[in-house]
């Protein structure tokens, strides 16, 4: 039984080293009438990069990019050309809010931490029967 506990502790230590230090999500954070790009590291509480585009036919469109704790994609207003109409795009990868509209997908790729956790669980599944 003691050998099994040592194996589990070793796997947890390997997982901690593989994941490395936690770092925040990186998003473009800016506001402009064009597709601005200013990468910044977000606060730890931010899980999304958000891009909001407001249609202003007379003064030009306003693009605002930011870090966000929560986000809801809203494409229902695209194609309308009335003043003040807003479209919101959300994504969860580093610097994923670089492009405007449909280019900023809401897909989530496996992060290093997720990949490390899956690797550790896979190793544990292989070793566990012998514990």
From TrEMBL:
The question of whether tRNA processing is a record keyword is answered with no
The record's CDD domains line, in alphabetical order, gives:
TFP_LU_ECD_Ly6D
Provide the protein's localization. Cell membrane
Predominant place of localization: membrane
The family database entries (InterPro entries) matched by this protein are listed as: CD59_antigen_CS, LY6_UPA_recep-like, Ly6D, Snake_toxin-like_sf, Toxin/TOLIP
Database matches in Pfam families:
Toxin_TOLIP (PF00087)
* Designated name of the protein: Lymphocyte antigen 6 family member D
Q: Which organism is it from?
A: Ictidomys tridecemlineatus (Thirteen-lined ground squirrel)
């Amino acid at each position: 039984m003691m050998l099994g506990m040592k194996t589990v502790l070793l796997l947890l230590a390997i997982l901690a080293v593989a994941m490395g230090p936690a770092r925040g999500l990186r998003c473009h954070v800016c506001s402009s009438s064009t597709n601005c790009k200013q990468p910044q590291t977000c606060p730890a509480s931010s899980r999304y990069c958000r891009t909001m585009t407001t249609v202003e036919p007379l003064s030009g469109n306003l693009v605002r990019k930011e870090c966000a704790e929560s986000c809801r994609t809203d494409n229902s207003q695209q194609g309308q050309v009335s003043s003040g109409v807003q479209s919101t795009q959300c994504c969860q990868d580093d610097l994923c809010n670089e492009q405007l509209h449909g280019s900023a997908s809401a897909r989530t790729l496996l992060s290093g931490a997720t990949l490390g956790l899956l690797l550790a669980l896979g190793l544990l599944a292989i070793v566990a029967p012998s514990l």
